[in-house]
Amino acid sequence: MLPIAIEKPVGLDGPLVRDKSHVSNNNEEVPAHDVHNGGLSRYLPLSRISAEVQKPVSGATKLRKMLSETNELVVCPGVYDGLSARTAIELSFNAMYMTGAGTTASRLGQPDLAIAQLHEMRENADMIANLDPFGPPLIADMDTGYGGPIMAARTVEQYIRAGVAGAHLEDQVLTKRCGHLAGKRVVPREEYYARIRAAHAARVRMRSDFVLIARTDALQSLGYDECIERLRTARDLGADVGLLEGFNSKEQAAQAVKDLAPWPLLLNSVENGASPTITVEEAQQMGFRIMIFSFACLAPAYRAIKETLTLLKTKGVVGTPKDLTPVRLFEVCGLQHSMSVDVEAGGFSFANGV
Ligand SMILES: C[C@](O)(C(=O)O)[C@H](CC(=O)O)C(=O)O
């Protein structure tokens, strides 16, 4: 189900090469922040580049290999903008998830109700997926595919060109809503299958390792057996991974893994949503292969912003911790790399430091 296609690596062929100091003596990856004091730089200076240095591999190929060559659970924090993605990269997560709910909230200030469309989603995913060509692969939300089969295919093509490693495609009606809200409606089986066929055909045409994740939201209205039927058919139509949205219980989640084995399943963890909280360890034991935490960044960001703005409103101060200097925040966003680009090019912008 998960063969590795031969694919031209996505990323920059030029001077951006991975600093070998990230690899320890026993060949294990050393977290970037341990090496570079804040995950500042993953790139070698031009002067240290030689022929044998590692080239970037596409996120799609990386993700497919994680699924086909290991038994690990791929843990993906849900990121929604540049800073949350940079933070996940700083902490050396193996993969990331771009949440549609978070993209809609942060870019449009709107709820997760089919308001963000393909161009907003693609643009956000493109930015996040390309922050670090050597970084973690990005799984993205592709909702309903934003139309019929033609749009589902177009979405896959655009996501692949943007460097997205994989995405989930669901069976809700086009006027969809967050999977953890009541009142969801799904399209008939054949309409869903046409979306999946179109998405799979697009990935084959693009000769990409893009990981197609079939999601069903049918549990609420049609029940568990219908979900298993839909996912089995999606698998047979070429989907690489399954996602049953909104489990009612831990037992049901474990049962779905068994019923669809050995096909890999993704678990969407939305704390305080429709499903019980399942820990990474529990998901691992159940046999899930990917776990996304959709609200991992969005919910705490809202809380922190609100607390800070309340302080500003009531006390007239912001109260930023002393170590959170502007330089520190810019470092998270690749300041050192930007500076090295200028210096290597003979620029003078940083002759007097920053
Ligand atoms: C996974 C999801 O599609 C997302 O956008 O992150 C949402 C998350 C949410 O709104 O709770 C979903 O589960 O539908």
UniProtKB/TrEMBL annotation:
Q: Which GO terms describe its molecular function?
A: methylisocitrate lyase activity
Reactions performed catalytically: (2S,3R)-3-hydroxybutane-1,2,3-tricarboxylate = pyruvate + succinate
Task: Tell me where the signal peptide lies.
Answer: none
Name the domain of life.
Answer: Eukaryota
A Pfam family in this protein? PEP_mutase
The text of the family note is: Belongs to the isocitrate lyase/PEP mutase superfamily.
Output this protein's name: Carboxyphosphonoenolpyruvate phosphonomutase
Q: Organism source for this protein?
A: Pochonia chlamydosporia 170
State the taxonomy lineage: Eukaryota, Fungi, Dikarya, Ascomycota, Pezizomycotina
